[in-house]
Amino acid sequence: MVTISVPIALTIAGSDSGGGAGIQADLKAFSALGVYGTSVITAITAQNTRAVTAVHGVPVDIIAAQIDAVFDDIAVNAVKIGMLATAETIGTVAAGLKNKSVPVVLDPVMIAKSGDALLQADAVAALRSQLLPIADLLTPNLPEAAVLLDAAPAKNTDELEAQGRALLALGPAAVLMKGGHAEGPECVDLLILKDAAPIAYRAPRINTKNTHGTGCTLSAAIAAGLAKGLTLPEAVKEAHAYLHGAIAAADGLGVGSGHGPVHHFYRSWKQD
Question: Of residues 18, 96, 213, 260, which has the active-site annotation?
């Protein structure tokens, strides 16, 4: 038997029982992009396409043990961080990743697609102080960026860049400002790098309600690209194109009656 060397990514996030976001979305995105996925579960949510009905945080000693177990045995090439819920969980994850030489993509998950809160208000300061400085890429949507900066959401490209620069000053090596919550026929994501012009990733806006898990999927796809050895701009470009296709194919899944999931496997599942 021939042993192959496979890129490996780790997702640190919450579980979505509906399968469209969180750990489940991350592992699907890793697999779809040819990356082996490992996981650390930070919370268990009772969730479907309509609502989050319950959240149970995983004890922090179990979160720490999961991180240690993965890194003690498996050569992780990239980390994606999603739902953390509490300040204590944030501190545990930050401590667990200390001195790990691996790129970190931080998706500051705060609110579910249904509108339910996924991050406690007192945890925002912990996110700013403990995780932003260790992130190689921060991927906020417009409402999340506004909360992190205690500002109003950006309304145009100039404000998008300005807020990205302000977030960059808080410690992450790069910021991807996601334009999915903006209006207009085109969706623009803006990659803000230190001492460089921003890079815009553009795609036609797709008219669909089935966008559950888009943020999780994008950040996981970027981590997958980094795990494969792509540069950050290359990883974002690949992830942006992959997510656009997954959204375009989402209506074909027919999962749930609310905000359905994107189609992670649109490139490989055969459609009749």
Answer: 213
